[in-house]
Design a protein that fits this description.
51% of the residues lie in helices and 15% in strands. The protein is an alpha/beta fold and 356 residues long. Helix 6 (183-194) links the parallel strand 6 (175-178) and strand 7.
């Protein structure tokens, strides 16, 4: 509107300026658009690279945090997973890049293994339900880091095939072999409750599996509370009768436990250990015959017998749920009620949250 009042020459100058300005404005817009598109492509490429390299970066970071860690594992020959990991050197391979060292110590059962954690001799191990309860009562600085479902069919109370004992009530006044503080210690308590027999009305013979087997075969005990694969071996060798297994009495779970100092100081190393345990556990679940062949020379038990034990158990490396914690708490409360332990404890206080 303003241009109609201007002289022709001035009007031409203004018109030329406005045309040039419009070209300049369009050019600037195009430049910014091109820059934005380029930046988007760069970010997209970087994001793609980050995704493809995330696993490698995570592995590198974990390797760095595992530098010079000394990982000390306790195991039992009959505890399939850790024994197989030891034999196959799974952990040594997993820690090779970081330079961490791995050492192994064998134990006859769970209680002495947890005593070793208390003494600072080992960092990690696997036991049945009862040993960690006794350990917590005594002040052992342990942490539940995972559980294994195992199976109620994998533990039982057996009697000689010629025994006059026919019911749980018949255990009153009898001598029963059991590993003190073991998973079958709880089975024995619950079985006596079902048979309406007071725990104080039996004569417990606290024996480790090899000694208990000798006492059982020598008729020096009337019954034996035992777990697989020793259970399967005794049944095959002696024709022992099963008075009861743990079905409806005890969940018969296994627990992976670690020293609190190890969990606090080396959580990445602990995760590496659990990763390898999971891999080997998956293998064992799908290959019972191979597991039996591996364990046979280790335990001096025929592979066919061991395969029976393998097929009636389950494997897993699972985080502790509220249900599992409540179940373990019930065992602790039962032991306190019958004065097997001198004080009550709170299981949830020593459960690791890093495996959730």
């Amino acid at each position: 509107m303003l241009t109609k009042y201007l002289p022709n020459r001035l009007m031409k100058i203004v018109s030329s300026f406005l045309q040039n300005y419009e070209i300049f404005r369009i050019g600037i817009f195009a430049l910014f658009f091109a820059c934005g598109l380029s930046l988007t492509l760069v970010i997209s490429a970087c994001s793609s690279n980050n995704t493809s390299n995330s696993a490698a970066t995570q592995a590198a970071n974990q390797s760095a945090t595992n530098q010079n860690v000394a990982v000390r594992i306790g195991y039992q020959k009959a505890a399939t997973i850790l024994n197989a990991i030891r034999a196959q050197k799974d952990l040594e391979k997993a820690f090779a890049a970081s330079g961490a060292s791995v050492t192994w110590a064998e134990f006859p059962s769970g209680p002495p293994m947890l005593e070793a954690i208390n003494a600072g001799s080992i960092d990690f191990g696997y036991t049945g339900e009862s040993p960690p309860i006794f350990a917590q009562v005594s002040g052992t600085p342990i942490v539940y880091v995972a559980y294994d479902p195992w199976s109620p069919k994998a533990e039982a109370i057996i009697v000689p095939k010629s025994s006059f004992i026919q019911t749980l009530a018949d255990l009153k006044g009898k001598r029963v072999a059991v590993a003190k503080g073991s998973n079958t210690n709880y089975l024995l308590v619950k079985a006596l409750e079902k048979g309406r027999v007071d725990y104080n009305d039996i004569k417990p013979a606290f024996l480790q599996p090899p000694d208990a087997r000798a006492a059982f075969e020598g008729n020096n005990v009337d019954a034996w509370a035992i777990w697989d694969p020793y259970l399967a071996a005794a049944q095959a060798a002696t024709g022992a009768r099963t008075l009861t297994d743990a079905t409806g009495l005890a969940p018969n779970r296994g627990y992976y436990l670690a020293a609190k100092s190890f969990v606090d100081k080396y959580p990445d190393a602990l995760k590496t250990v659990l990763d390898e345990v999971k891999k080997r556990s998956n293998w064992a679940q799908n290959n019972p015959a191979e597991v039996a062949k591996f364990l046979s020379p280790e335990l001096g038990i025929d592979a066919e017998v061991l395969e029976v034990a393998e097929k009636r158990r389950e494997y897993g490396v699972l985080p502790l749920t509220e249900e599992v914690i409540r179940g373990q708490q019930q065992i602790a409360d039962t032991f306190y009620k019958i004065k097997l332990i001198p004080k009550s404890i709170n299981i949830s206080e020593i459960v690791w949250k890093g495996n959730q």
